C-alpha cells in the first residue's frame, strides 16, 4: 500500500500535470481498471480507454485546477482534496467548487476518483 | 432523495450542533443503521448505539469544527466538506485537517460519514 505521503504526492502530481496540459502524464497516474465518477452521482466511467477519452476532453488548455487546502490522507489507500476548477472562455470563467476523493492500488496508481460537486457548486464569473 | 441544498443544510447543522455541544441534536441527524468511519481506513462503527458512544466521547466541550470552504454537493445523495477540528487542552491545541464525506437516506438522514485524515494531518499548536 502506498504511504500517506505517496498518496498526497500523487494527488498533487495530478493537479500539476493537469495544469501543464500533460495528458499522458495524467493518464500514467491511473491504473488500467480505474474508475472516474465526476460528478459524484453520475455513472462512473470505467477503464483506461474511457478515462483517456474523458481527459482528452477536459485537458483543453483552458481549464486549471486550484487546490484550496492541504490534501488530506487517511489510514488506508485513499486521500481527499478541496479544489476549484476554472475554465476560461471568451469573456467569462466557469468556476466549479469540488472535493475529489481518490483511492490507490498497492502500486500507488489511482484506482478510483470521485469528484463531489453539484449544480449549486458552479458559478460564472 | 434530499435535494443538494437539503444535504448542505444538514451538513452545516452537523457542524453547528457539534459546536454547541448538542449531542442529541447531532445524533438526530443520523439514520438508525448509519455508519461512521473516522478516520477513513479504520473499521467503521455501525448503528445508532455505537454512533452515540462515539459522539459522547468527542462532544466534550473542548472540540470545535471549523469549515474551511463551501460544502460541496453531488448529483445524488452525498456531499463533502473540508474542515479542521480543534481540540483545546491545557496549554495546547490539537488541530486535525479533515475532509468529511456524507451520504443521506431518502428521508434526509445521514447514512454514512467518512472522515479523510491521516497522521500527517494532525498538528499541535
From TrEMBL, chains A, B:
Zinc-finger keyword on record: no
Keyword terms, alphabetized: Isomerase
Record organism: Paenibacillus dendrobii
Keyword Isomerase belongs to the record: yes
Coiled coil region boundaries: none
GO MF: isomerase activity
Domain SnoaL-like as annotated: residue spans: 12-112
Name the record gives this protein: Steroid delta-isomerase
SUPFAM superfamilies with a match to the protein in the record: NTF2-like
